[in-house]
Each structure stands twice: as structure tokens, then as C-alpha cells.
Fold these 2 entries.
Entry 1:
Amino acid sequence: MTESMPDWLLAIVYLVTPWIVLIRGMPWISILVQILIAVPVAIAIHGIATPILRRLSAPLRYSRRIVEYGHRAGGLLVFLLLVQVILRNAPDDLAGLQLGRHLNALTLVGTLTWLGVSVVHAIAQTIVELNPLDAPDNFRARRVQTQARVLARSAIVLILLIGTASALMTLPLLRQMGTSLLASAGVAGIVLGFAAKPVLGNLLAGLQIALTQPMQLDDVVIIEGEWGQIEEITGTYVVIRIWDQRRLVVPLQWFIEHPFQNWTRRTSDILGAVTLWVDYRMPLGPLRAQTEAICAAAPEWDGRVCVLQVVDASERAMQLRILVSAGNAGQAWDLRCRVREELLDFVQREYPQFLPRLRAEFGQAANAPRSSSPLG
């Protein structure tokens, strides 16, 4: 048979045969060679499958984003599955094989966790892009984004907990500890409940906020006397952008246990009040006409409310309240400042004598008794 074989084929056989015999005599070398072969195989599968999946998912936004975010974890998962098959087919009495299988299982659990987190990120990011906040009427977008972000973070925390628990349960020592602690599960549960109360409380508060939505992204709120907007909602806390560019970080559970003001709960429309003090002699007709003219010329006014009323009177002056409306809290603030400035300028220019003043009357009383001299 060897006489009929070409010389080049005989040379290859003579070169390869000793290596085959050597590999068969050293099982670990054989396993390592198979793993090295699995690397280009996994790369080839990833390189072929990824473009196909991208082309198939191109019309589907969610699927396209899942492929974009999860293809790296998917490629690593293919390689680890090939390694798992190689290690499972190896002889069980091979020294160190159990350690190799365990390390591969841990890596496999970590990769599956990475893939799950990537899928959640992809879905949440797609929902956010489909509901932008820069629309004129962004109430629905804020509601959807709030739910998507909070639920995504809660799902990621849950996936990480499951992945960590699965990885730890592969350790024989922890399995034995879990069996021994099973009898005292009630006491251990109470202790763990108290220890994990802040984490679990914030996690449950996040789910409650996502479902009931007492607040949403970009809502205008007043918390602890601070006026600001909801900038970010994470799995444990909320970041509020204060009007002077400061950031207030509040735990999620605080919103469940304490009352707070939400100026944009249903709509962003809001009323603003301007207060002025003027003299009793000030005529209200010209002041009302000037107020309406200011509102009509103001770009911040939404055309709903522009009212001037006398709301109080003291011994020195009367108090006027001008109620105006705007599309959101920021415009309402600017409109209040505009109305206050222009009304003060109008009164100073047209009716300066009717500004609040303190009156005092000096003089000797007519019927004041005169003292008589004892000397006459």
C-alpha cells in the first residue's frame, strides 16, 4: 500500500504519525489541541452567523439591537459550549479534569449572564430611542422611558443575582453549607432580610415607581425645599438636577415613604403668581390693562390665565396677585419675572405717587391741656 502512495503523502504520514501517537499517549495534550482547534471553529461560526443574523434582523429594531449588543457574548458562548463538549468526552479519571470542567462551567455561567444583561440593555435602549424626550408633548415618552429604565435596571440586578447564585452553587463547599443551613433557614432568612433591607427596599421601590409612576424622567419636583428636574432614575437612587446646576441624589425608597411635590405629574402646564403691594389710591383698571398687555406680548404665556386680583389689605397698602399660566415650570418662572419687572416699571413711570408709603401725622393737638403756674 505504501508503494502506491505518492512521496509527498508518505512524507506527511511519516511526520504526523509520531505526533498522533504522542498525543494519544498524553490525554491533556489531546484536549488542548482540540481546544485550540475549537478557537478558529468558534470564530468561523461567529463570523458566519453574525452577518446572517444582522441581515435577517435589519427590519426589526429590537432584534437588530439585540444582535448588535449580544453578538460578542454569543461568540464566546459558542466557544465555551465546544469546550464543554470536549471536556465531557474526556475520560473521567483524568487528573485535573474536574477542575477544568468546573472552571469552564463558571465561565459559561458568566457568559450567559453577560448575554442576558446585553439583551436587557438592547431592549431598553431601543425603547428609549423610539420615545425621544425632545418632542413638544413628551408626556408619554417620559412615562415610557421611566418604565423602561427602571424595569431594565431591576431586570439586570435580578440577572446578576441569578448568575452569581448559579456560579456559587457550582462550588461543592457552598452546596454543603446550604444543606447544613437548611434546618435554620428561618433564622438565616430573618438575618439576611435585615442585612439586605436597604438593597431589597430600593429594588422593590424601583419596581413600584416603574409601575405606579409617581414621578417620571424630566418631571419638575420639589424635594426637601429644592426645586429641580428628574435627571436620572437608577436601580437604587434618583438624581435631581437643581435649578442652579447642583445635583440632589435621593434613594428610591425615600419617594415611597415621604411626600414630595410633582409639578408635571399629568401635564407640564402650570400657574405662577406675582405679588405686588401698592397704595390704596392706585387705580386698578390701568394696572389690569397693562397686565393683559404684558401677557399678550410675552412669548412664555400660553394664553390660558392672566388675572389681577386684590388678595389682601393692610393698614398701609393693598396686596395684588397676578396669576399667569405657562407651558412648563421654566417658562412660568421667566413669565413671572417679566410681569413683575414690567408692572413695577409701569407703576414707577405712570403712578409713582401710588407706591406703598408710610404716613405719619405731626402737629399739636388742639385740645391739649396747658399746665398752670402755681405762681400765677
Entry 2:
Amino acid sequence: MLTFFSTGESETVMEVYLGIDVGSVTTKFAVLGKDDQLIEALYLRTQGEPIATVQQGLRQIARRLPSDVQIQGVGTTGSARHLAGIIVSADVIKNEITSHAVAALHYVPEVQTVIEIGGQDSKIILIRNGMVTDFGMNTVCAAGTGSFLDQQAMRLNIRIEDFGNRALESKKAVRIAGRCTVFAESDMIHKQQMGHRIEDIIYGLCQALVRNYLNNVGLGKEILAPIAFQGGVAFNQGIIRAFEETLETKVIVPPHHEVLGAVGAALLAHEDMTIRGNGTKFNGFGVADADFRTSSFECKACPNMCEISQIFLDSKVLARWGGRCEMWERVTSTLGG
């Protein structure tokens, strides 16, 4: 899915900053102008091929931007941030917590809690006085993530895009056991057989996801307003309603919430380049057509037997990573530039 944002500017040279967020389910791109306004955004399915998806995104972004655009800095984030960073020769490589926090503060300056729910993981970030003070992540159980709703929508034969609006039609939610996707499916079928309205079951599923999130990711966390809700699941109005009813406060969905990880990476790249004052390491959009490949091997230097990942361009090793020590944590070759 491609979303286009235009600034209406007619400058001879457009100076921009690129952010790339590569997750297990989706890969997001964000292009910010020098005033940090979003110019372009791209949202793609990773489909288990992060290299190919990054290259596909670069090609699409290049076509959308003017020919005289100048990339001033590039940042990567997400679970495959290091891999993406090597491909594009990123100026900054940051974790998802930092990137989402920076983006949340950009759109909601007084934010104190960030709820981020994606396809296969979820996060909570606590911010006090503009600084991250605590966070939590869930990357194991699907019951507190978007894939939970995807699975139930499929079983109910309802498009996930319609899930949230159907939930808003509920007058009395049905309680669904949502601690596990297996139990949720069994309980949902049982409630259907009892004759409960489909809207009430759907909203019950939304409430189950929120309960699971708060009882796992948010357990022991001091959740204070203002609360920003980010990630693709924030499209779901039923989830927003469930969070607001449970937390008894308004939940803010920032603009472009589905790509805010990439926005945060671009903001961090802008900040870094402003401080350092030297040119970007970005290799240009031509890397979209380069022949990258990856492999791994087991390091036998010590009893840890770490699995080391490596990326090649043609026959040259660009980088190796994955060990507990820094033995392989170095770039052995570059793309040039």
C-alpha cells in the first residue's frame, strides 16, 4: 500500500531525510523534508524477504521523488535494521523503542505513554519530561498483536479493514478468553453457537486483545496520559474504543501512525547529520538493483557457538553480525561512496 503526501513546494533542490523501518510483517519508508514534514510514505509487506522488500521500496520511493532530490541522511530501525542499514549504508541505525518515542514526541510533545501494536509484536514506552524512562515488549505471544485480530477476522469471514467499524456497532460486548489465540478461537465459536451478535463478539475480541496487552506488555507500568497509540493496529476503531474504556482516558492516534517507526528513524538521521555536519553515507537509489545475498555459519571460536549472519554483494562480504562478542561485528567491505 502506497500513501503519497505532497508539500506543494517548488524548490529547485529538495533536501530530504529517509527513514526505513523493517519489521517481520511490514516494511515502512518515510521521507521528511528539511522542516521534518512528511513528504512521502510507503507501507509494504515484508513477506519474509527483507532485502527484496527494501529494494522494492527504494525503487518506488525513487519514482515518487523529483529527479533533483538530495538525500541528506538515512536512518533504519526495526527487527532487520542492521541488515537494512548495511544495504543503504545508513547514517544511523536505531532500535524501535527510540524511533517510536522520537516520532511520538514529534507529533504529541506532551506524550507520557506510547502504545505501539504491530502485526507480530507490541511495545509500551514510558516517557517522562521528554525522555524514555521505561519500556516493555512482547515478541512471543500473538494474542496481544495484530495477527490475533487477523486470524479471528479470517475465521469470521470478515475483512480486517471492516473489523473496527463492526466493533463500534456493539451494544454489549461478549467476553472472550483472549489469553491465547487457541482459547480465543474456541471461546469465540462457543459464543457464536450461543447466538450472540457478531458485532458483540468482534468487540469482545478487541477487548481481549487490550486485556492481553495490558496484562503482559503493560504489566507493572505506570500508564499516564497523554497516551499515543501507534502502529498498524491503530487503524482499528474498536481497539481504540477498548483502550479508552479500559484506561478511562482519551487515546491519541498521531498522524501517519502506521509509519511512525520510519518517521522516527528519519528524524534521528536529521538530528545526527545536523550535529555531525558532514555528508550522508547513503549509496543512492542504485542499490535497489544490486545483487545482495545472505548466509550464516556457526562460529567455533568459543563454547557459545554463535550463529553469525553475513551479507554479500556479488562475492564480497559487506558485514557479519550475530555473535555475543564483537569478533564479527564489523563491516568488512563497503559499497563505496
